[in-house]
Amino acid sequence: MQKQTIQFVRGLMLIPFLTAGSPFAMLQSFIPPQVEVGKNAHIDIAKEHAEKIDAYYAKRGMPLEGYGEKMVAEAEKNNLDWRLLPAIAIKESTGGKFACYKNPFGWGSCKIKFASYDDAIETVARNLGGNNPNTARYYKDKTTKEKLHHYNNSVVPTYTGEIMQFMELIEDGK
User: Fold this and answer.
1) CA 112: distance to chain centroid?
2) Which CATH number goes with the domain that contains 103?
3) Is residue 19 part of a domain?
């Protein structure tokens, strides 16, 4: 009789597996569903960042207005803070107002000529991202502040702080 009781209890233990797949399946009603952050959320964030850049430039009549999307895309591609390129362009050329040879970043002491702003954005982003073997020792695996130190802080001691302030202004929409 005791053997039959044990078999009966074992049978009862199998019922949840047979009906729900596992005892954990019964708990699903108590666990809140996970919110998936999909591709659209990423696109929305990138679009918001580009709009902040363009709004900052538009408010001040800067020629780089409209390049926000390009700057955000290149920053993502090269693992940079999305505010870095526009902030450097503000400091170096007032957002393109005083760009030399389509070089709004003053790259190469403004001696390097670019065919277009797109070309300049791609080149500077690639370098700051540490993806150019010729400049990687200065930028690869460095923080934003370290990158800025190598970019111009050795010449202008306040450079890093000024760029960081522009980055905050862009983000805050001021």
Assistant:
1) 26
2) 1.10.530.10
3) no
